[in-house]
Amino acid sequence: MGIIKIVGDPDGHGDEYDIRVTGEATGAGDMGGGDDVRRLPDVQQMIGSINEQSDTYRYTGSIVQADVPNGAAMLIDGQRVDSDSIGSGNSYTSPTDPVLGPAPEPEPEATPPTEPEPEPEPEPEPEPEPEPEQSPSATPPTEQSDGSQQSETTTLGGSLPDTVMWVVGLGAIGLAVYKSQQ
């Protein structure tokens, strides 16, 4: 979802604005009286008046028309945009992917360590624990095709090196996804 902010002129006296988007639009909390979002047949219209304050809206889709009074500034996703550049075939599209959601805020890139980290030494394998006796509520053994029975065993957790490898692997996947979106 993108953000449109109309910042008023210190000398503004209720000058009116009109912005239209192809997707959805909602007010974002700092709007004064008389500011409104209206559904029209093909677009949603954000209208209001601005003085020295500001009005903020959230939107999806494309901005297809923007009439903002002289002296007021229009910020789209934090960037100042000349309202005269929108309309007459030109539009501005929200950076939102309908599947992935809004574009993430850029984070400072991490600097890789200068020295490689030493490999963790393998831990000795623990001695196997004796199997607990089955209680009457335990799952009964399953019968095999040859007539023998096999108990079902489930292991939760795992050894520490396995856990470390999962954490490192998931971290690498997360970093790869983040880098691919930049």
From TrEMBL:
Superkingdom to which the source organism belongs: Archaea
Compositionally biased intervals (Low complexity): 134-143
Compositional bias per record (Pro residues), positions renumbered to this chain: 101-115
Biased composition (Polar residues): 85-96, 144-157
Region (Disordered): 75-161
Residue ranges, compositional bias (Acidic residues): 116-132
Name of this protein: Uncharacterized protein
Organism this protein belongs to: Haloarcula amylolytica JCM 13557
